[in-house]
Amino acid sequence: MAQNSRSGMVENRGSSYWLTHVGLIIGILVIFFPIWVAFVASTVTQPEITSPPMPLWPGDRFFENYRDALVSGVNAPVARMLANSLVMALGIALGKIVISILSAFAISYFKFPGRRTFFWLIFLTLMLPVEVRIVPTYEVVAGFGMLNSYSGLIFPLIASATATFLFRQFFMTVPDELAEAARVDGARPMRFFWDILLPMSRTNIAALFVILFIYGWNQYLWPLLITTDPSMNTIVMGIKQMFPSGDDIADWPVIMATSILAMVPPVLVVIFMQKLFVRGLVDSEK
Amino acid sequence: MATVSLNDIRKSFGALEVIHGVNIDINEGEFIVIVGPSGCGKSTLLRMVAGLETVTSGEIQINDIGVNHKEPMDRNIAMVFQNYALYPHMSVFDNMAYGLKIAGTAKSEITERVAVAAKLLQLEPYLKRKPRELSGGQRQRVAMGRAIVRKPDVFLFDEPLSNLDAKLRVQMRLEIKGLQKKLGITSLYVTHDQVEAMTLADRMIVMNEGVAEQIGAPLEVYERPATLFAAQFVGSPSMNILSGTAKDGAVTLDNGSVIETGTGVNGAVKIGIRPEHVVEDANGSIVVNSAMSEPLGANTLLHGHMSGTDTEFVVSLPGVHLEESLGGEKRFSAPPSTIHLFDPESGQRISR
After folding, report:
1. In a designed cystine with A88, which of A64, A153, B197, B284 is the match (CB 3.0 to 4.6 A)?
2. pLDDT value for B291
3. If you measure CA to CA, which chain A residue comes closest to B98?
4. pLDDT over 80 (residue B326)
5. Domains in chain B: how many in total?
């Protein structure tokens, strides 16, 4: 975004230019404020939070609070929950990409009976949100004995109609002659897929990875249902599990530290992948 | 080097037959151009030879071996596509080497073969570049290079020059011809441009609506077109076609003019006269109401109607003629030896 304003699409930098910036800065402050408060709360002591007024500047308990969170947490160490979330999000994102790019390849490049039917069947599943099918899915997963396991966290969410659809749309824009040229060159279908289609899709893969990683990371309802063992909790649901039930006292600094930690990986993925897919966009052509 | 033969090749899409039986035996090293208007089935025919389309009936043989059910890679052919179909993420070198890599050729030999092809096509400075960093003509050369390095039995070209500008097209046309002569590889070349066909071909196949109207050397097709379609498709501007009735070595046109033909044909005919064979003649029997002229420098195209009819007639006169000097009726004649006669029903040439 910063690059856009620097490259100066607006030549006339009058008062409206500054007004726009003031408006944007205020907007960012409003959005950023709760995150700031969470960060401040994660660096002070419990009594400081509970006694009004709330502090607005960071305290000196940063290392202690984060160490407590990572090592011991409330129900389970946060490090453990971060690892769980990472496994789940990566599993879902990579699994979805692998499965959907292969099914899109099949649907776009091979003629087989019922090809359209399969495509529309996949497309139909777009219409059903996870919540609608969550009870039967739970039943199936429980039947397979996959409760409290990574496979139970990942597999029910791994099929993706959206990604299949996106890859199919992309493959349709790849000229047929490319596939034909590869055929004349002697490439078998999977070779063509591996050598030509996959490298050409890398920008799409990067973009999808970001979206799907965050989708996987932010899963709440499903992990809440199937992980009863605190050591299998993912971080997003784990935060909720940290809230006390009954008369226990909430350990706010640790909870806030956990919240901040939960935000870091998706932010890193966005920042890192943004570079990658901007480069991809610059490099790409059909 | 290879021979290719097509035996009664037919192609149907569903119930619709689009190619109605094409026969040709192609000699080793021959350059065959398939020419015709869009939708005549010329590309489909080429793609059947390539193995990208199935053959509905008939047999394609390369070196006397039937290849109908062989994959493209097993036919030992190479194809140059209209939009080049270069792999966008690969360098020029990798584009050219890809087929060899798949075939499992040794690395040193790949490097050597690509180097030879690159030298031949003056692509040496560009081997590390990506296709998008090249101009149209250079991409075209890479596509040819990709075909050359494989040392195929047969080259297939699918309108390879139609994406280039006019000047480059002429240049590449000469390059392709020179290259083909040098390498001596049997080639099939599809184009809709009759000039390309005339200049490149050893023999050309004039296609129309899935039928090979005529197969022959370019000048043979020009001088003795087998059908009305071939007569009009080859040559620019295209041949004038008039209806008339033949009797006693002359044809009486619809407007009553009589043209000497010197043949013993009788009955209804179509008469064909090439614009460039018409000469000014104050006593000529071809009377044209001229409407427009197109001075091209070396010659002038005169567009008009046959007097008393609305049949269009085009004359190509040497030198410059200004429109003012051409107004009104003009008389022309055509030597009997340059006149073509066709059967009005079948469109077939009536031999004299």
Report:
1. A153
2. 79
3. A185
4. no
5. 2
pLDDT for A225-276, tens place per residue? Answer: 888 888 888 888 888 888 777 667 777 888 888 888 889 999 998 888 887 7
| Chain A residues bordering chain B (beta-carbon distance below 8 Å) | 175, 177-178, 180-187, 191, 195-196, 199-200, 283-286
HSE, CB side, 13 Å, CA atoms: give it for residue B290: 23
Q: What is the mean pLDDT of residues A207-236?
A: 87
Transcribe B307-350 into DSSP letters: TTS--EEEEEEES---HHHH-EEEEEE--GGG-EEE-TTT-BB-
Average pLDDT, integer, range A175-183: 91
Q: Is B20 exposed, middle or buried (0-12, 13-18, 19+ CB in 10 A)?
A: middle
Q: Across chain B, what does the average pLDDT equal? A: 89
Of B232, B263, B293, the residue that ends a domain is: B232
Task: Find the mean pLDDT for residues B147-164.
Answer: 90
Start-to-end CA span in chain B (Å): 39
Q: Looking at the structure, do residues B279 and B223 belong to the same domain, yes or no?
A: no
Q: How much is the pLDDT for A285?
A: 45
Among chain B residues, the shortest Cα distance to A285 is held by B88
The Cα–Cα gap between A144 and A152 comes to 9
Which of B210, B232, B254 delimits the end of a domain? B232
Predicted pLDDT at A1: 40
Just give the CATH number of A76-283. 1.10.3720.10
**Same domain, yes or no: B212 and B277:** no
Name the residue range of residue B22's domain.
4-232
pLDDT at A279 over 70: no
Which two tokens mark B341? 């006669």
Domain ranges of chain A: 2-70, 76-283
The answer to whether residue A5 scores a pLDDT higher than 50 is no
Question: Distance (Å, rounded) from C-alpha B299 to C-alpha B315?
Answer: 10
Of the candidates A183, A191, A285, the beta carbon closest to that of B52 is on A183
Interface test with B, best of A109, A174, A176, A185 (most B CBs within 10 A): A185
Q: Are residues B162 and B310 in the same domain?
A: no
How far is A30 from A227, CA to CA, in rounded Å?
35
| Mean pLDDT of all residues in A88-106 | 92
What's the ipTM? 0.83
**Closest approach of chain A CAs to the CA of B341, in angstroms?**
43
Distance between CA A193 and CA A284 in Å, rounded? 17
Distance from C-alpha of B138 to C-alpha of B116, rounded to nearest angstrom: 16
> What CATH number does residue B32 fall under?
3.40.50.300
Interface of B with A in 142-161 (CB under 8 A): 146, 150
**Spacing of C-alpha B232 from chain mean position:** 13
Chain A residues closer than 8 Å to B51 by CB: 183-184
Q: Tokens 């999000």 sit at which residue?
A: A89
